[in-house]
C-alpha cells in the first residue's frame, strides 16, 4: 500500500472500539517526547486525552494528544512544521475550527494519533482535562460512558462524525457541571 492509499484508508476507517490496552500510555509518552524534542520552545505542555487516556475505557486505538501553545497564532505557525513532521490534516476542516488545530498520524491504513493544538490553559484545554480527570476518578461515570460508546459505535460504525456528535451531550454534561 502506498502513502496515498494508506491515508485514504485511514480517513475512511470505520469506528471500531477495542478493549483498553495498557500499552496506550507508553505510545502517548513516545509521541509526547517526539513532539517536545522537535518543538521545545513552542509547546508549553503536552497531555494525553481521550479514551486511550482512561484506564479500562474501550476506545478507538488512536492516541489523542493535546498540545498547548501560547495562542492560536502559534498554532497556525506550527501548521506547516507539523505537516513536515509526519502529520496530515485537512485545510478545509481546520478552517472551520476556531479554538484548535487538528492533525492526524497514520500507518498502514490506520489512524495512530490525533493531535489537537489548543491554547494552553484556555477554555478547551481545561474542559478536555476536566473530562479526562473526571472519568479517571469516577468508576461509575466511566462505566456509563463506556456503555454509551459501545452503543454509539454499533450505530455509527461508518460515520465517525455522527459517532462523535452523538457523544456530545454526555461530554457536555461532565465539563459543564465539573
TrEMBL record:
<dbReference type="Pfam" id="PF04229">
    <property type="entry name" value="GrpB"/>
</dbReference>
<protein>
    <submittedName>
        <fullName>GrpB family protein</fullName>
    </submittedName>
</protein>
<dbReference type="InterPro" id="IPR043519">
    <property type="entry name" value="NT_sf"/>
</dbReference>
<dbReference type="InterPro" id="IPR007344">
    <property type="entry name" value="GrpB/CoaE"/>
</dbReference>
Amino acid at each position: 500500500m502506498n502513502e496515498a492509499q494508506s491515508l485514504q484508508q485511514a480517513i475512511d476507517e470505520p469506528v471500531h472500539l477495542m478493549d483498553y490496552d495498557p500499552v496506550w500510555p507508553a505510545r502517548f509518552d513516545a509521541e509526547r517526547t517526539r513532539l517536545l524534542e522537535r518543538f521545545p520552545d513552542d509547546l508549553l505542555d503536552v497531555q494525553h486525552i481521550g479514551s486511550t487516556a482512561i484506564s479500562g475505557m474501550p476506545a478507538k486505538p488512536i492516541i489523542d494528544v493535546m498540545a498547548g501553545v501560547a495562542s492560536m497564532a502559534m498554532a497556525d505557525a506550527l501548521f506547516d512544521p507539523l505537516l513536515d513532521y509526519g502529520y496530515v490534516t485537512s485545510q478545509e476542516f481546520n478552517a472551520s475550527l476556531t479554538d484548535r488545530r487538528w492533525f492526524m498520524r497514520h500507518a498502514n491504513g490506520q489512524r495512530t494519533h490525533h493531535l489537537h493544538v489548543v491554547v494552553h490553559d484556555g477554555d478547551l484545554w481545561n474542559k478536555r482535562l476536566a473530562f479526562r480527570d473526571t472519568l479517571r476518578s469516577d468508576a461509575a461515570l466511566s462505566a456509563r460512558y463506556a456503555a454509551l460508546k459501545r452503543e454509539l459505535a454499533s450505530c455509527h460504525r461508518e460515520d465517525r462524525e455522527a459517532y462523535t456528535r452523538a457523544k456530545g451531550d454526555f461530554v457536555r454534561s461532565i465539563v459543564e457541571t465539573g
